Amino acid sequence: MTTLDAAFPPAALTVLDVIRARRTVDIGLLKPDAVPRDVVEAILEAGIWAPNHGRTEPWRFTVFTGAGRARLAEVFAQAYAAGSAPDRDSEPALEAQRARAWRAPLWISLELHMPEKPKMPEWEEQAALACAAQNMWLAATAFGLVGKWVSGPVMVSPVAAQALGAPKLMGLLVLGYPAAGLPSVSRAPLADKITWVE
Question: What family name appears in the similarity comment (predicted)?
Answer without folding.
Answer: Belongs to the nitroreductase family.
